[in-house]
Design a protein that fits this description.
The complex is a heterodimer of chains A (616) and B (310). Chain A contains 16 helices and 22 strands. Chain A is of the alpha+beta class. In chain A, a hairpin with a 2-residue loop joins strand 2 and strand 3. The model of chain A has no long low-confidence stretch (mean pLDDT 84). The radius of gyration of chain B is 25 Å and the shape is elongated. The chains are: A alpha+beta (616), B alpha+beta (310). Chain B: Part of the Sec protein translocase complex. Interacts with the SecYEG preprotein conducting channel. SecDF uses the proton motive force (PMF) to complete protein translocation after the ATP-dependent function of SecA. Chain B: It holds the Pfam family SecD_SecF_C. Chain B: This is Protein-export membrane protein SecF.
Chain lengths: 616, 310
């Protein structure tokens, strides 16, 4: 019996077919537009809250498809995006700042499939709509900020140790400390070596000078931390924005990928992610003359700033608290109806603020709003980035009484600015400015269209191939088409199991794989015809056809696989998706073209002892 | 049904000189197109901004242009895409504007003029990112070539590997040449298509070579050119049918896949058409000239694993 598969082989093929059918199934159900409510920080979302949310939605008159409450979060599914957006806006207003309300596309997979671990493929941004940013962390700025920080810290340390110095100034990448005498230098060197392990100390010709520079290790550390801290901050900000399933990953040494599926308001997303806004609180220098400073004689302990209206103002060099020490911030109105940000400081910040306000009641304090604006210019083909640190004094107020942990800041340009600033302060500031070097936004309607395009390409292509194969190869054409169908099923199942991200190029990959997979069956069928032509018996022809074609199939597929792997290794984003589909598609087609079609042939012809003709 | 009932072997090798001359001419033309016209690189590689918007009635392109001019923008292009309601705006990198914000500004201005305008997509690629993509694409190309050559050298013999890869590069250069000549936009998906063709087009050469190897074993008293003729003739039907199938799929993409897959399908089409030609009429003559002989393959035993498979 040449053309007979043992029972185990048939069972195996059937089992593979059923398993792949189950795992490919979830992709047919699509997604429900949903709203997800989850608690922030230490908040809890208990059953009572969940019930409240449910009744609020019902009151709004939106038709809820399903309402789920588990693991401290609520998910409400809707039939259309209008209801979804309506409810999301409503809940955002009602729930206040302690909960994150996010739009989500929740897979509508039935429970029994879910229990089996069958999940739909994750749709890429080009299919579901959303934004993709590639951001570059400005390492030079991160290093420069660290230098500035050291500069201040060194000054502070010397002052606290009562070592007198003439000047601490930056010279390029180094800090020069000028002291009064050689003895002081020895004392200062000892102190700095002990307190600042990250600085390398070198002596100069002059008896009373020390040069400090950050060690290589320190610089490396700073760069690593800058990216790490930026990722944390971006993640906080994205959570604040209320985005479901965001992707925030480091890419390469200094880049961060941020993907926000389903985000509609890209302008706001960009603003929130990209800004490096923060606040500083400083005392106003009331002892010196501002006019003198404007003319260029800024006193040593102060810095010249400008208010929003353009008036110059002198502020103390020393910062009372910075944005980093803010643990919570919310926006609202003060008693006079002006937009305000209500701020809560951490322990260190609170004690410092308490001390300063106690010593300075009746004196003015200023709030400085700091923002890094990055402009990229291309000069002679070279990318030149100019970074401006824009510092504005947004409010000057007299300290009325002692406050420490909680207080408010006014002087903002409107409720919107207050809201954004509060969000930024809550989420922490970026360790270093970021630059958006790539942005791709896909509107939701385009996403829907892209899905349709991908599916149409596949369906119409498959149908024409089916038609041709059956006309040209008759029954063997039917076998081939069934094998091809199993191949698509298997491919989708594997991709779903891997939880691969499906993109439009990925769908093109499926179509291309189908087109290429048929090659194996054509090879086999042609070979069988050839063997029949040279006078072999039908059984021998089938046997020889499969046998001989296999070596060829293996060879020709491996070369395509090599191309696919190279694409996968070096490709980015959607192209990677295409490559993955190509590689897996080749593997599944080897299985289906050879085993599945052979099983069918054996099933139809294998048991016939006397075989005169083949329908090929 | 059968299209190819060829009784006698077609003497392909006799025309080897002619076919390779034709190839050489197209190849040179492609190189010329590439060097004089260059590829019309898409946004992915050059960097820049591309905004697609949709109006709820046929868009007035002049109005859009006017709005852009009012913003002191230059060197932009405004065109319909897919339908009269969809407008594609392209802006080059502006040295004096923060590019990441430019798209928002443009959209805001368009909305001022017509509130019904909907954003469909924005793509902004920094020049550096584009450059990197270009480099990694080139690297991928080399990797594929090296990988395929190594595989074929092991599986067959170095002459086969060289012949197949030359034929293959010839396809790739012709695709690129066509894109340069017609100034079709060369985007990231097109590059992916080109690389896929690189793997796919080798198939033909491999199928023919497989047959050549088989013939070396079977047709003891035949000359090498005749043997190659026989291999090509025998695999002819398979080559054409297979490609026809793949082409059906590619055509489906071309017609139904929309703007995004249009050029991808175009690249594949050229690759498929020339793939047939080169595998038959370029790879084999080269193989012949490289002086392939029976001994080259006799040394290697057929690997055992192949015999035990279904």
């Amino acid at each position: 019996m040449q053309n007979h598969y043992p029972l185990w082989k048939n069972i195996l093929i059937l089992a593979v077919f059923f398993v792949s059918a189950i795992y490919a199934l979830p992709n047919l159900y699509g997604n429900d537009p949903s709203v997800q409510v989850s608690p922030q920080h230490s908040e809890k979302l208990d059953l009572e809250q969940a019930n409240k949310i449910e009744s609020a939605i019902k009151a709004a008159g939106a038709a809820v498809k399903a309402f789920e409450y588990k693991d401290d979060r609520v998910l409400a599914r809707f039939n259309n995006t209008d209801d979804q957006i309506k409810v999301a806006d409503l809940l955002r207003d009602q729930m206040g700042g302690n909960y994150t309300v996010a739009l989500n596309l929740a897979p509508a997979t039935p429970a029994w499939l879910d229990a089996l671990g069958a999940k739909a493929m994750y749709l890429g941004l080009d299919l579901r709509g959303g934004v993709h940013f590639l951001m570059e962390v400005d390492m030079d700025a991160a290093v420069k900020q660290a230098e500035d920080r050291y500069n201040d810290d060194v000054r502070q340390a010397l002052r606290e140790a009562k070592i007198r110095y003439q000047a601490v100034s930056k010279e390029g990448v180094r800090i020069k400390v000028k002291l009064n005498s050689a003895d002081d230098r020895a004392a200062a060197a000892g102190l700095l070596a002990r307190d600042f392990p990250g600085l390398d100390i070198t002596d100069t010709e002059a008896q009373d000078e020390i040069l400090l520079a950050m060690s290589e290790k320190e610089v490396r550390e700073i760069k690593k931390n800058a990216v790490g801290q930026n990722i944390t901050t971006l993640r906080n900000r994205v959570n604040e924005l209320g985005v479901a399933e965001p992707v925030i990953q480091q890419q390469g040494e200094n880049r961060i990928v941020v993907q926000l599926p389903g985000v509609q308001d890209t302008a706001r997303a960009k603003e929130i992610l990209g800004t490096t806004a923060t606040l500083e609180y400083r005392l106003v220098d009331t002892e010196h003359d501002v006019q003198n400073a404007v003319e260029g004689h800024v006193p040593a302990g102060s810095r010249l700033y400008y208010e929003k209206n353009g008036n110059p103002i002198l502020l103390d060099r020393r910062i009372i608290v910075t944005g980093d020490q803010i643990v919570d911030a919310s926006s609202g109105m003060d008693q006079d109806g002006r937009p305000a940000v209500f701020i809560t400081l951490n322990g260190a910040g609170a004690s410092k603020m308490g001390k300063v306000t106690q010593d300075n009641v009746g004196k003015p304090m200023a709030v400085v709003f700091i923002e890094y604006k990055v402009d990229t210019k291309v000069v002679d083909g070279q990318k030149v980035r100019t970074k401006q640190k824009v510092e504005k004094v947004i409010s000057v107020a007299t300290i009325q009484g002692v406050f420490s942990k909680r207080f408010q800041t006014t002087g903002l340009d409107g409720a919107g600015e207050a809201r954004n600033l509060a969000l930024l302060l809550r989420a922490g500031s970026l360790a270093a400015p970021v630059d958006i070097v790539e942005e791709r936004t896909v509107g939701p309607s385009l996403g829907q269209e892209n899905i349709a395009k991908g599916i149409n390409s596949n369906v119409y292509g498959f149908l024409t191939i089916t038609l041709f194969m059956i006309v040209y190869y008759r029954l063997f054409g039917v076998f081939s088409v069934v094998a091809l169908g199993v191949n698509v099923l298997l491919l989708v199942a594997v991709l779903s199991l891997l939880q691969a991200t499906l993109t439009l190029p990925g769908m093109a990959g499926i179509a291309l794989t189908v087109g290429m997979a048929i090659d194996a069956n054509v090879l086999i069928n042609e070979r069988i015809r050839e063997e029949l032509r040279i006078g072999m018996t039908p059984h021998a022809a089938i046997y020889a056809g499969y046998e001989r074609a296999f070596a060829t199939i293996l060879d020709s597929n491996i070369t395509t696989l090599i191309a696919g792997i190279a694409l996968f290794m070096l490709g980015s984003g959607p192209i990677r998706g295409f490559a993955l589909v190509l590689c897996i598609g080749i593997l599944t087609s080897m299985f289906s073209a050879v085993l599945v079609s052979r099983a069918l042939v054996n099933g139809v012809y294998g048991w016939r002892r006397k075989l005169d003709k083949l329908a090929i | 049904m059968e299209f190819f009932k060829i009784k006698r072997d077609i003497p392909f090798m006799r025309y080897g000189r002619v076919t390779t001359t034709i190839s050489l001419v197209t190849f040179i033309l492609a190189i010329l197109a590439l060097s004089f016209k260059g590829l019309n690189l898409g946004l992915d590689f050059t960097g820049g901004i591309q905004i697609e918007v949709r109006y709820d009635q046929p868009a007035n392109l002049e109005t859009v242009r006017k709005i852009l001019e009012d913003q002191k923008l230059t060197e932009f292009s405004v065109q319909n895409i897919g339908s009269v309601k969809n407008v594609l705006i392209r802006l080059p990198m502006k040295p004096e504007i923060n590019n990441a914000r430019l798209s928002e500004m443009v959209l805001a201005k368009l909305k001022e003029q017509d509130a019904g305008v909907v954003l469909r997509s924005v793509e902004f690629v920094g020049p550096q990112v584009g450059q990197e993509l270009f480099e990694s694409g080139g690297l991928a190309l080399m990797l594929v070539v090296a990988g395929i050559m190594a595989y074929l050298a092991v599986r067959f013999e170095w002459r086969f590997a060289l012949a197949a890869i030359i034929a293959n590069m010839h396809d790739i250069v012709i695709i690129l040449g066509m894109f340069a000549f017609f100034q079709w936009e060369f985007t990231l998906p097109v590059l992916a298509g080109v690389l896929a063709i690189l793997g796919y087009s080798v198939n033909e050469s491999v199928v023919v070579f497989d047959r050549v190897r088989e013939n070396f074993h079977l047709m003891r008293n035949t000359s090498v050119p005749d043997m190659i003729d026989n291999a090509i003739t025998a695999t002819m039907s398979r080559t054409v049918i297979t490609h026809f199938m793949t082409q059906l799929m590619v055509l489906a993409m071309f017609f139904f896949g929309g703007e995004a897959l249009h050029n991808f399908a175009l690249a594949l089409t050229i690759g498929i058409v020339f793939g047939i030609y080169s595998s038959v009429l370029v790879a084999s003559p080269i193989l012949l000239w490289l002086g392939v002989s029976r001994q080259d393959l006799m040394v290697k035993k057929e690997s055992v694993e192949i015999d035990n498979l279904p």
